Amino acid sequence: MNVERMRPGLGPLYRQVKQRVIRNLIDETWKPGEMLPSEPRLAEAFGVSPGTVRRALDELVSENLLVRQQGKGTIVCRHDPERSLFHFFRLVDPAGQRPTPASLVLACFRRRAEKAEAARLSLTAGAPVVVIDRTRSVAGRPLLVERLVLPARLFGELAQVAPADLPNTLYTLYEERFGVTVYRAAEQLTAVAATEREAELLAVAPGTPLLEIDRLATSLDGVPVEWRLSRCRTDVHRYRVELV
Amino acid sequence: MNVERMRPGLGPLYRQVKQRVIRNLIDETWKPGEMLPSEPRLAEAFGVSPGTVRRALDELVSENLLVRQQGKGTIVCRHDPERSLFHFFRLVDPAGQRPTPASLVLACFRRRAEKAEAARLSLTAGAPVVVIDRTRSVAGRPLLVERLVLPARLFGELAQVAPADLPNTLYTLYEERFGVTVYRAAEQLTAVAATEREAELLAVAPGTPLLEIDRLATSLDGVPVEWRLSRCRTDVHRYRVELV
DNA sequence: TAGTGGTCTAGACCACTTT
DNA sequence: AAGTGGTCTAGACCACTAT
Protein backbone atom coordinates (compact mmCIF):
# COMPACT_ATOMS: atom_id res chain seq x y z
CA MET A 1 0.00 0.00 0.00
CA ASN A 2 0.91 3.60 -0.05
CA VAL A 3 3.29 4.05 2.85
CA GLU A 4 3.42 7.81 2.39
CA ARG A 5 -0.21 8.12 3.31
CA MET A 6 0.40 7.17 6.92
CA ARG A 7 3.88 8.39 7.61
CA PRO A 8 4.58 12.07 8.08
CA GLY A 9 7.74 11.09 9.92
CA LEU A 10 5.90 9.61 12.88
CA GLY A 11 8.17 6.62 13.13
CA PRO A 12 7.63 3.03 12.04
CA LEU A 13 4.35 2.07 10.47
CA TYR A 14 3.55 -0.59 13.05
CA ARG A 15 3.79 1.98 15.82
CA GLN A 16 1.38 4.23 14.02
CA VAL A 17 -0.97 1.27 13.74
CA LYS A 18 -0.46 0.61 17.44
CA GLN A 19 -1.35 4.20 18.29
CA ARG A 20 -4.49 4.01 16.16
CA VAL A 21 -5.51 0.86 18.01
CA ILE A 22 -4.86 2.58 21.34
CA ARG A 23 -6.99 5.51 20.22
CA ASN A 24 -9.78 3.06 19.49
CA LEU A 25 -9.38 1.66 22.98
CA ILE A 26 -9.47 5.11 24.57
CA ASP A 27 -12.64 6.21 22.81
CA GLU A 28 -14.10 2.76 23.46
CA THR A 29 -14.63 1.83 19.87
CA TRP A 30 -13.57 -1.54 21.22
CA LYS A 31 -14.56 -1.98 24.85
CA PRO A 32 -12.93 -4.19 27.46
CA GLY A 33 -13.97 -7.78 26.94
CA GLU A 34 -14.96 -7.21 23.32
CA MET A 35 -13.33 -8.81 20.33
CA LEU A 36 -11.28 -6.87 17.79
CA PRO A 37 -11.71 -7.37 14.05
CA SER A 38 -9.47 -10.13 12.76
CA GLU A 39 -5.93 -9.30 11.76
CA PRO A 40 -6.53 -9.46 8.01
CA ARG A 41 -9.56 -7.20 8.43
CA LEU A 42 -7.57 -4.68 10.48
CA ALA A 43 -4.79 -4.80 7.91
CA GLU A 44 -7.23 -3.90 5.20
CA ALA A 45 -8.87 -1.19 7.31
CA PHE A 46 -5.54 0.43 8.09
CA GLY A 47 -4.17 -0.12 4.63
CA VAL A 48 -1.12 -2.07 5.76
CA SER A 49 0.01 -5.65 5.47
CA PRO A 50 -1.13 -8.29 7.97
CA GLY A 51 2.42 -8.65 9.30
CA THR A 52 2.47 -5.01 10.29
CA VAL A 53 -0.82 -5.28 12.16
CA ARG A 54 0.50 -8.39 13.84
CA ARG A 55 3.56 -6.58 15.11
CA ALA A 56 1.45 -3.73 16.49
CA LEU A 57 -0.83 -6.18 18.28
CA ASP A 58 2.20 -8.07 19.59
CA GLU A 59 3.31 -5.00 21.49
CA LEU A 60 -0.16 -4.33 22.83
CA VAL A 61 -0.42 -7.92 24.02
CA SER A 62 2.93 -7.64 25.78
CA GLU A 63 1.65 -4.47 27.46
CA ASN A 64 -1.39 -6.34 28.72
CA LEU A 65 -3.88 -4.32 26.74
CA LEU A 66 -4.99 -7.17 24.49
CA VAL A 67 -5.22 -10.93 24.79
CA ARG A 68 -4.99 -13.34 21.90
CA GLN A 69 -7.06 -16.50 21.84
CA GLN A 70 -5.98 -18.94 19.23
CA GLY A 71 -8.73 -19.93 16.87
CA LYS A 72 -11.08 -17.29 18.24
CA GLY A 73 -9.69 -13.81 17.99
CA THR A 74 -8.12 -10.96 19.94
CA ILE A 75 -10.01 -9.32 22.78
CA VAL A 76 -9.50 -6.16 24.81
CA CYS A 77 -8.12 -6.88 28.26
CA ARG A 78 -10.57 -6.62 31.06
CA HIS A 79 -9.92 -5.81 34.67
CA ASP A 80 -11.67 -8.86 36.00
CA PRO A 81 -11.43 -9.03 39.74
CA GLU A 82 -8.73 -11.70 39.42
CA ARG A 83 -6.70 -9.81 36.87
CA SER A 84 -7.00 -6.66 38.93
CA LEU A 85 -5.38 -8.43 41.84
CA PHE A 86 -2.97 -10.61 39.96
CA HIS A 87 -1.70 -7.72 38.00
CA PHE A 88 -1.07 -4.89 40.42
CA PHE A 89 -1.14 -6.53 43.80
CA ARG A 90 2.40 -7.47 44.72
CA LEU A 91 2.02 -8.82 48.22
CA VAL A 92 2.41 -12.57 48.62
CA ASP A 93 2.16 -14.95 51.55
CA PRO A 94 5.09 -17.06 52.79
CA ALA A 95 4.26 -19.71 50.20
CA GLY A 96 4.48 -17.13 47.41
CA GLN A 97 0.72 -17.14 46.84
CA ARG A 98 -1.30 -13.98 46.32
CA PRO A 99 -3.93 -13.59 48.99
CA THR A 100 -7.48 -12.43 48.32
CA PRO A 101 -7.94 -9.52 50.67
CA ALA A 102 -11.33 -8.31 51.89
CA SER A 103 -11.94 -4.56 52.07
CA LEU A 104 -13.50 -2.49 54.80
CA VAL A 105 -14.26 1.06 53.74
CA LEU A 106 -13.80 3.51 56.60
CA ALA A 107 -14.77 6.63 54.71
CA CYS A 108 -15.61 7.83 51.21
CA PHE A 109 -16.18 11.51 50.61
CA ARG A 110 -15.60 14.43 48.33
CA ARG A 111 -13.51 17.51 49.11
CA ARG A 112 -10.97 19.89 47.61
CA ALA A 113 -7.53 18.50 46.83
CA GLU A 114 -4.74 19.28 49.19
CA LYS A 115 -1.61 20.72 47.70
CA ALA A 116 0.33 17.46 47.56
CA GLU A 117 -2.65 15.61 46.14
CA ALA A 118 -3.20 18.13 43.37
CA ALA A 119 0.47 18.03 42.48
CA ARG A 120 0.54 14.26 42.38
CA LEU A 121 -2.58 13.98 40.23
CA SER A 122 -1.67 16.90 37.95
CA LEU A 123 -4.76 18.82 39.04
CA THR A 124 -5.15 22.53 39.57
CA ALA A 125 -4.93 23.59 43.22
CA GLY A 126 -8.15 22.98 45.09
CA ALA A 127 -9.75 20.85 42.38
CA PRO A 128 -12.40 18.47 43.74
CA VAL A 129 -11.29 14.94 44.57
CA VAL A 130 -12.86 11.81 45.98
CA VAL A 131 -11.12 10.31 48.99
CA ILE A 132 -11.48 6.71 50.11
CA ASP A 133 -10.03 5.37 53.33
CA ARG A 134 -10.11 1.64 53.85
CA THR A 135 -8.39 -1.36 55.32
CA ARG A 136 -7.82 -4.70 53.68
CA SER A 137 -7.62 -7.98 55.55
CA VAL A 138 -6.65 -11.53 54.78
CA ALA A 139 -8.31 -14.35 56.69
CA GLY A 140 -9.70 -11.86 59.18
CA ARG A 141 -6.27 -10.44 59.89
CA PRO A 142 -5.68 -6.80 58.91
CA LEU A 143 -2.99 -6.50 56.23
CA LEU A 144 -2.95 -2.84 55.27
CA VAL A 145 -4.60 0.52 55.64
CA GLU A 146 -4.75 2.88 52.70
CA ARG A 147 -6.03 6.18 51.38
CA LEU A 148 -7.05 6.64 47.76
CA VAL A 149 -7.41 10.02 46.11
CA LEU A 150 -9.16 10.34 42.75
CA PRO A 151 -10.02 13.28 40.52
CA ALA A 152 -13.71 14.04 40.99
CA ARG A 153 -13.85 15.11 37.38
CA LEU A 154 -13.54 11.46 36.43
CA PHE A 155 -15.07 9.78 39.46
CA GLY A 156 -17.52 12.33 40.85
CA GLU A 157 -20.40 9.95 41.55
CA LEU A 158 -18.12 7.66 43.49
CA ALA A 159 -18.61 9.79 46.60
CA GLN A 160 -22.32 9.04 46.52
CA VAL A 161 -21.80 5.30 46.56
CA ALA A 162 -22.48 3.80 49.97
CA PRO A 163 -19.15 2.70 51.44
CA ALA A 164 -20.44 -0.83 51.85
CA ASP A 165 -21.16 -1.01 48.12
CA LEU A 166 -17.62 -0.26 47.02
CA PRO A 167 -16.18 -3.46 45.62
CA ASN A 168 -12.95 -4.99 46.74
CA THR A 169 -11.29 -4.58 43.37
CA LEU A 170 -11.82 -0.97 42.46
CA TYR A 171 -10.15 -1.07 39.06
CA THR A 172 -13.00 -3.18 37.77
CA LEU A 173 -15.40 -0.50 38.98
CA TYR A 174 -13.36 2.30 37.40
CA GLU A 175 -13.55 0.49 34.11
CA GLU A 176 -17.17 -0.62 34.07
CA ARG A 177 -18.74 2.38 35.74
CA PHE A 178 -16.49 5.26 34.69
CA GLY A 179 -14.84 4.00 31.50
CA VAL A 180 -11.39 4.52 32.99
CA THR A 181 -8.86 1.78 32.29
CA VAL A 182 -5.87 1.70 34.60
CA TYR A 183 -3.03 0.10 32.74
CA ARG A 184 0.11 1.41 34.28
CA ALA A 185 1.26 2.32 37.76
CA ALA A 186 4.45 3.43 39.46
CA GLU A 187 5.07 2.49 43.05
CA GLN A 188 7.56 3.88 45.53
CA LEU A 189 8.30 1.95 48.68
CA THR A 190 9.58 3.13 52.01
CA ALA A 191 9.68 1.80 55.54
CA VAL A 192 7.77 3.84 58.13
CA ALA A 193 6.67 3.55 61.73
CA ALA A 194 3.00 2.87 62.46
CA THR A 195 1.10 5.82 63.91
CA GLU A 196 -1.28 5.35 66.80
CA ARG A 197 -4.26 5.12 64.51
CA GLU A 198 -2.58 2.76 62.05
CA ALA A 199 -1.40 0.58 64.88
CA GLU A 200 -4.94 0.30 66.14
CA LEU A 201 -6.38 -0.50 62.71
CA LEU A 202 -3.69 -3.05 61.97
CA ALA A 203 -3.60 -4.59 65.43
CA VAL A 204 0.09 -3.94 65.95
CA ALA A 205 2.06 -1.89 68.44
CA PRO A 206 2.54 1.80 67.66
CA GLY A 207 5.91 2.33 66.02
CA THR A 208 5.90 -1.06 64.33
CA PRO A 209 7.75 -0.85 60.99
CA LEU A 210 5.30 -0.82 58.10
CA LEU A 211 5.88 -0.95 54.37
CA GLU A 212 4.51 2.18 52.75
CA ILE A 213 3.45 1.79 49.13
CA ASP A 214 2.92 5.03 47.25
CA ARG A 215 1.20 4.24 43.96
CA LEU A 216 0.30 6.56 41.13
CA ALA A 217 -1.92 4.90 38.54
CA THR A 218 -2.35 6.26 35.03
CA SER A 219 -4.95 5.52 32.39
CA LEU A 220 -4.59 4.60 28.76
CA ASP A 221 -3.96 8.16 27.68
CA GLY A 222 -1.30 8.71 30.31
CA VAL A 223 -3.39 10.82 32.70
CA PRO A 224 -2.97 10.17 36.44
CA VAL A 225 -6.26 8.75 37.72
CA GLU A 226 -5.53 7.50 41.22
CA TRP A 227 -3.09 8.21 43.99
CA ARG A 228 -2.97 5.45 46.57
CA LEU A 229 -0.98 5.47 49.78
CA SER A 230 -0.93 2.13 51.57
CA ARG A 231 0.74 1.07 54.79
CA CYS A 232 1.22 -2.65 55.15
CA ARG A 233 2.18 -5.12 57.80
CA THR A 234 4.96 -7.29 56.48
CA ASP A 235 5.20 -9.79 59.28
CA VAL A 236 3.43 -12.40 57.17
CA HIS A 237 3.09 -11.04 53.67
CA ARG A 238 5.93 -9.64 51.60
CA TYR A 239 6.20 -7.43 48.54
CA ARG A 240 7.56 -9.40 45.62
CA VAL A 241 9.34 -8.08 42.51
CA GLU A 242 10.89 -9.92 39.60
CA LEU A 243 13.87 -8.18 38.06
CA VAL A 244 14.60 -9.10 34.46
CA MET B 1 15.14 -26.22 5.39
CA ASN B 2 14.05 -29.44 6.94
CA VAL B 3 11.97 -28.45 9.93
CA GLU B 4 11.76 -32.04 11.15
CA ARG B 5 15.46 -32.07 11.85
CA MET B 6 15.16 -29.58 14.69
CA ARG B 7 11.76 -30.33 16.11
CA PRO B 8 11.15 -33.41 18.17
CA GLY B 9 8.16 -31.63 19.68
CA LEU B 10 10.26 -29.06 21.48
CA GLY B 11 7.96 -26.18 20.63
CA PRO B 12 8.34 -23.43 18.04
CA LEU B 13 11.43 -23.32 15.93
CA TYR B 14 12.40 -19.81 17.03
CA ARG B 15 12.44 -20.93 20.66
CA GLN B 16 14.74 -23.80 19.81
CA VAL B 17 17.01 -21.30 18.09
CA LYS B 18 16.80 -19.10 21.16
CA GLN B 19 17.81 -21.99 23.40
CA ARG B 20 20.76 -22.79 21.15
CA VAL B 21 21.88 -19.17 21.37
CA ILE B 22 21.54 -19.27 25.16
CA ARG B 23 23.63 -22.44 25.24
CA ASN B 24 26.31 -20.61 23.29
CA LEU B 25 26.16 -17.81 25.85
CA ILE B 26 26.44 -20.23 28.77
CA ASP B 27 29.46 -22.05 27.40
CA GLU B 28 30.91 -18.69 26.36
CA THR B 29 31.15 -19.44 22.68
CA TRP B 30 30.16 -15.79 22.50
CA LYS B 31 31.42 -13.83 25.51
CA PRO B 32 29.96 -10.67 27.02
CA GLY B 33 30.92 -7.69 24.88
CA GLU B 34 31.59 -9.81 21.82
CA MET B 35 29.69 -9.63 18.58
CA LEU B 36 27.47 -12.42 17.31
CA PRO B 37 27.57 -13.61 13.71
CA SER B 38 25.18 -11.63 11.53
CA GLU B 39 21.58 -12.74 11.30
CA PRO B 40 21.86 -14.24 7.80
CA ARG B 41 24.95 -16.15 8.92
CA LEU B 42 23.18 -17.48 12.00
CA ALA B 43 20.19 -18.44 9.89
CA GLU B 44 22.42 -20.48 7.65
CA ALA B 45 24.27 -22.05 10.57
CA PHE B 46 21.06 -23.08 12.27
CA GLY B 47 19.39 -24.06 9.03
CA VAL B 48 16.40 -21.75 9.46
CA SER B 49 15.18 -18.64 7.73
CA PRO B 50 16.48 -15.19 8.74
CA GLY B 51 13.07 -14.22 10.07
CA THR B 52 13.16 -17.07 12.54
CA VAL B 53 16.60 -16.09 13.81
CA ARG B 54 15.37 -12.53 14.11
CA ARG B 55 12.46 -13.54 16.27
CA ALA B 56 14.73 -15.56 18.56
CA LEU B 57 17.12 -12.62 18.93
CA ASP B 58 14.17 -10.29 19.53
CA GLU B 59 13.28 -12.21 22.67
CA LEU B 60 16.87 -12.31 23.87
CA VAL B 61 17.14 -8.56 23.36
CA SER B 62 13.96 -7.97 25.33
CA GLU B 63 15.42 -10.13 28.12
CA ASN B 64 18.53 -7.95 28.19
CA LEU B 65 20.89 -10.68 27.08
CA LEU B 66 21.75 -9.13 23.73
CA VAL B 67 21.95 -5.60 22.34
CA ARG B 68 21.42 -4.67 18.73
CA GLN B 69 23.43 -1.91 17.12
CA GLN B 70 22.08 -0.81 13.81
CA GLY B 71 24.59 -1.00 11.04
CA LYS B 72 27.12 -2.83 13.21
CA GLY B 73 25.78 -6.04 14.60
CA THR B 74 24.44 -7.74 17.72
CA ILE B 75 26.57 -8.02 20.83
CA VAL B 76 26.30 -9.98 24.06
CA CYS B 77 25.17 -7.80 26.95
CA ARG B 78 27.84 -6.87 29.37
CA HIS B 79 27.44 -6.00 33.02
CA ASP B 80 29.24 -2.70 32.74
CA PRO B 81 29.27 -0.92 36.04
CA GLU B 82 26.53 1.41 34.82
CA ARG B 83 24.33 -1.36 33.51
CA SER B 84 24.82 -3.29 36.71
CA LEU B 85 23.45 -0.40 38.67
CA PHE B 86 20.84 0.78 36.25
CA HIS B 87 19.45 -2.65 35.87
CA PHE B 88 19.08 -4.14 39.33
CA PHE B 89 19.39 -1.19 41.65
CA ARG B 90 15.92 0.13 42.36
CA LEU B 91 16.58 2.86 44.90
CA VAL B 92 16.14 6.40 43.67
CA ASP B 93 16.60 9.81 45.24
CA PRO B 94 13.75 12.32 45.67
CA ALA B 95 14.30 13.57 42.13
CA GLY B 96 13.90 10.05 40.76
CA GLN B 97 17.60 9.72 39.93
CA ARG B 98 19.63 6.61 40.67
CA PRO B 99 22.49 7.37 43.00
CA THR B 100 25.98 5.92 42.60
CA PRO B 101 26.69 4.32 45.94
CA ALA B 102 30.19 3.68 47.26
CA SER B 103 30.88 0.37 48.99
CA LEU B 104 32.69 -0.34 52.22
CA VAL B 105 33.41 -4.03 52.75
CA LEU B 106 33.24 -4.98 56.41
CA ALA B 107 34.10 -8.64 56.00
CA CYS B 108 34.66 -11.25 53.33
CA PHE B 109 35.23 -14.83 54.34
CA ARG B 110 34.50 -18.45 53.60
CA ARG B 111 32.55 -20.86 55.81
CA ARG B 112 29.94 -23.58 55.71
CA ALA B 113 26.43 -22.60 54.70
CA GLU B 114 23.85 -22.21 57.40
CA LYS B 115 20.65 -24.09 56.93
CA ALA B 116 18.65 -21.16 55.55
CA GLU B 117 21.47 -20.19 53.22
CA ALA B 118 21.83 -23.67 51.79
CA ALA B 119 18.09 -23.88 51.24
CA ARG B 120 17.94 -20.51 49.54
CA LEU B 121 20.87 -21.26 47.22
CA SER B 122 19.82 -24.86 46.51
CA LEU B 123 23.02 -26.19 48.07
CA THR B 124 23.51 -29.34 50.13
CA ALA B 125 23.59 -28.70 53.87
CA GLY B 126 26.96 -27.40 55.03
CA ALA B 127 28.28 -26.69 51.54
CA PRO B 128 31.02 -24.03 51.51
CA VAL B 129 29.93 -20.46 50.82
CA VAL B 130 31.55 -17.05 50.58
CA VAL B 131 30.04 -14.35 52.77
CA ILE B 132 30.45 -10.63 52.19
CA ASP B 133 29.26 -7.99 54.61
CA ARG B 134 29.32 -4.42 53.44
CA THR B 135 27.68 -1.03 53.60
CA ARG B 136 26.92 1.29 50.74
CA SER B 137 26.80 5.05 50.99
CA VAL B 138 25.71 7.94 48.86
CA ALA B 139 27.47 11.27 49.20
CA GLY B 140 29.11 10.08 52.39
CA ARG B 141 25.80 9.20 53.94
CA PRO B 142 25.19 5.49 54.70
CA LEU B 143 22.29 4.11 52.66
CA LEU B 144 22.23 0.40 53.38
CA VAL B 145 23.98 -2.49 55.04
CA GLU B 146 23.90 -5.91 53.42
CA ARG B 147 25.13 -9.48 53.56
CA LEU B 148 25.83 -11.48 50.42
CA VAL B 149 26.11 -15.25 50.39
CA LEU B 150 27.58 -17.04 47.36
CA PRO B 151 28.29 -20.70 46.56
CA ALA B 152 32.03 -21.24 47.02
CA ARG B 153 31.88 -23.80 44.22
CA LEU B 154 31.43 -20.89 41.82
CA PHE B 155 33.18 -18.11 43.69
CA GLY B 156 35.79 -19.87 45.81
CA GLU B 157 38.66 -17.48 45.18
CA LEU B 158 36.52 -14.55 46.13
CA ALA B 159 37.30 -15.10 49.79
CA GLN B 160 40.97 -14.52 49.08
CA VAL B 161 40.39 -11.13 47.55
CA ALA B 162 41.31 -8.32 49.89
CA PRO B 163 38.10 -6.61 51.00
CA ALA B 164 39.38 -3.28 49.73
CA ASP B 165 39.81 -4.76 46.26
CA LEU B 166 36.19 -5.82 45.88
CA PRO B 167 34.59 -3.51 43.34
CA ASN B 168 31.44 -1.57 43.96
CA THR B 169 29.52 -3.37 41.25
CA LEU B 170 30.03 -7.03 41.97
CA TYR B 171 28.09 -8.38 39.00
CA THR B 172 30.80 -7.11 36.71
CA LEU B 173 33.33 -9.06 38.77
CA TYR B 174 31.21 -12.21 38.72
CA GLU B 175 31.09 -12.03 34.97
CA GLU B 176 34.67 -11.12 34.17
CA ARG B 177 36.43 -13.14 36.83
CA PHE B 178 34.14 -16.13 37.33
CA GLY B 179 32.22 -16.36 34.07
CA VAL B 180 28.90 -16.09 35.90
CA THR B 181 26.28 -13.87 34.29
CA VAL B 182 23.50 -12.72 36.57
CA TYR B 183 20.49 -12.03 34.44
CA ARG B 184 17.50 -12.47 36.66
CA ALA B 185 16.66 -11.74 40.27
CA ALA B 186 13.65 -11.92 42.54
CA GLU B 187 13.31 -9.51 45.42
CA GLN B 188 11.06 -9.64 48.46
CA LEU B 189 10.57 -6.52 50.51
CA THR B 190 9.59 -6.12 54.12
CA ALA B 191 9.76 -3.39 56.72
CA VAL B 192 11.92 -4.15 59.75
CA ALA B 193 13.32 -2.34 62.78
CA ALA B 194 17.03 -1.49 62.82
CA THR B 195 19.10 -3.57 65.22
CA GLU B 196 21.71 -1.93 67.42
CA ARG B 197 24.47 -2.79 65.00
CA GLU B 198 22.54 -1.71 61.91
CA ALA B 199 21.57 1.52 63.62
CA GLU B 200 25.21 2.24 64.31
CA LEU B 201 26.33 1.44 60.77
CA LEU B 202 23.54 3.47 59.22
CA ALA B 203 23.72 6.36 61.67
CA VAL B 204 20.10 6.08 62.74
CA ALA B 205 18.38 5.36 66.03
CA PRO B 206 17.90 1.71 66.98
CA GLY B 207 14.41 0.59 66.02
CA THR B 208 14.22 2.93 63.03
CA PRO B 209 12.10 1.33 60.29
CA LEU B 210 14.29 -0.01 57.50
CA LEU B 211 13.40 -1.50 54.14
CA GLU B 212 14.69 -5.05 53.95
CA ILE B 213 15.42 -6.30 50.43
CA ASP B 214 15.86 -10.04 50.10
CA ARG B 215 17.28 -10.79 46.66
CA LEU B 216 17.97 -14.12 45.05
CA ALA B 217 19.93 -13.81 41.82
CA THR B 218 20.09 -16.56 39.23
CA SER B 219 22.45 -17.10 36.33
CA LEU B 220 21.80 -17.85 32.69
CA ASP B 221 21.13 -21.51 33.32
CA GLY B 222 18.70 -20.80 36.13
CA VAL B 223 21.01 -21.71 39.02
CA PRO B 224 20.89 -19.49 42.13
CA VAL B 225 24.24 -17.72 42.40
CA GLU B 226 23.78 -15.06 45.05
CA TRP B 227 21.60 -14.44 48.05
CA ARG B 228 21.66 -10.85 49.19
CA LEU B 229 19.94 -9.42 52.24
CA SER B 230 19.99 -5.62 52.39
CA ARG B 231 18.58 -3.25 54.96
CA CYS B 232 18.08 0.29 53.72
CA ARG B 233 17.31 3.67 55.11
CA THR B 234 14.38 5.12 53.21
CA ASP B 235 14.33 8.59 54.67
CA VAL B 236 15.86 9.99 51.49
CA HIS B 237 15.93 7.23 48.90
CA ARG B 238 12.95 5.13 47.91
CA TYR B 239 12.47 1.82 46.15
CA ARG B 240 10.82 2.36 42.79
CA VAL B 241 8.80 -0.15 40.72
CA GLU B 242 6.98 0.28 37.46
CA LEU B 243 3.91 -1.90 37.10
CA VAL B 244 2.88 -2.62 33.53
C1' DT C 1 30.59 0.46 -1.47
C1' DA C 2 29.43 -3.42 1.22
C1' DG C 3 27.52 -5.24 5.31
C1' DT C 4 24.49 -4.78 9.24
C1' DG C 5 20.19 -4.44 11.65
C1' DG C 6 15.10 -2.15 11.04
C1' DT C 7 10.91 -2.30 8.58
C1' DC C 8 7.38 -3.92 5.50
C1' DT C 9 5.26 -7.01 2.51
C1' DA C 10 3.30 -11.48 0.80
C1' DG C 11 2.03 -15.97 1.09
C1' DA C 12 2.42 -20.72 2.88
C1' DC C 13 1.07 -24.12 6.33
C1' DC C 14 -0.37 -25.45 11.12
C1' DA C 15 -3.36 -25.69 15.44
C1' DC C 16 -7.35 -24.41 17.36
C1' DT C 17 -12.31 -22.93 17.73
C1' DT C 18 -16.70 -22.50 15.94
C1' DT C 19 -20.63 -23.69 13.08
C1' DA D 1 -15.72 -26.39 6.41
C1' DA D 2 -14.50 -21.85 7.46
C1' DG D 3 -12.24 -18.52 10.18
C1' DT D 4 -8.86 -17.29 13.64
C1' DG D 5 -4.32 -16.65 15.56
C1' DG D 6 0.68 -19.05 15.52
C1' DT D 7 4.64 -20.07 12.90
C1' DC D 8 7.85 -20.00 9.13
C1' DT D 9 9.67 -18.55 4.93
C1' DA D 10 11.33 -15.27 1.28
C1' DG D 11 12.58 -11.13 -0.47
C1' DA D 12 12.20 -6.07 -0.86
C1' DC D 13 13.84 -1.53 0.63
C1' DC D 14 15.65 1.71 4.24
C1' DA D 15 19.05 3.72 7.74
C1' DC D 16 23.19 3.30 9.70
C1' DT D 17 28.25 1.96 10.14
C1' DA D 18 32.52 0.80 8.52
C1' DT D 19 36.13 0.86 4.93
Give the helix proportion of chain A (percent range): 25-40%
Please identify which CATH superfamily of the largest domain in chain A we are dealing with: Chorismate lyase-like
CATH fold name of the largest domain in chain A:
Chorismate lyase
Q: Residue-averaged pLDDT of chain A, rounded?
A: 92
Number of domains of chain A: 2
Q: What is the overall number of helices of chain A?
A: 8
List the chains of the largest interface with their residue counts: A-B, 34 and 34 residues
Characterise the protein shown here.
The structure is a homodimer of 244-residue chains. With 244 residues, chain A is an alpha+beta fold. Chain A folds into two domains: 13-76, Winged helix-like DNA-binding domain superfamily/Winged helix DNA-binding domain (Arc Repressor Mutant, subunit A); 81-239, Chorismate lyase, CATH 3.40.1410. Chain A is 28% helix and 33% strand. In chain A, strand 8 (209-219) and strand 9 form a beta hairpin. The radius of gyration of chain A is 21 Å and the shape is globular. Mean pLDDT of chain A is 92; it is low at 1-5. The A-B interface holds A 63-64, 87-88, 90, 92, 183-193, 207-212, 214-215, 232, 234, 238-244 and B 63-64, 87-88, 90, 92, 183-193, 207-212, 214-215, 232, 234, 238-244. Strand 7 of chain A pairs antiparallel with strand 10 (238-243) of chain B. Chain A binds a DNA duplex (19 and 19 nucleotides) through helix 3.
